[in-house]
Amino acid sequence: MLKESGQAVEAVYATEGTPLIVGPNGVFKNAPNPNAARLFQSWMFTLEAQQLMIEIGGLRSVHALAKEKPGRKPLKEIKLMKDDPVAVERDSEQIKARYTQYFRV
User: What's the Cα-to-Cα distance from 16 to each of 9, 13, 31, 82, rounded to whole Å?
Assistant: First the structure.
């Protein structure tokens, strides 16, 4: 999004792979308006919503009909890293410590 706004930056994708972070979506068990929540959740998977996330949020979509913004490298051309949820959970403390070290937070 910075590049698209004219900033002198370039997206770089690591040759060994780029993490794919999926945004979870769900309806809380005790939601005050569960039907509205389900309708909103269903809408989030429509082409319209997915395209909004691409255009406004700068995100990616695997929706078959969604169109990437011009000038962006298509997701299908980016080597994605394989994740291992068991390993992530097992190593979570080490991962958090490394994150703190790298980003000083």
Answer: 21, 9, 41, 10
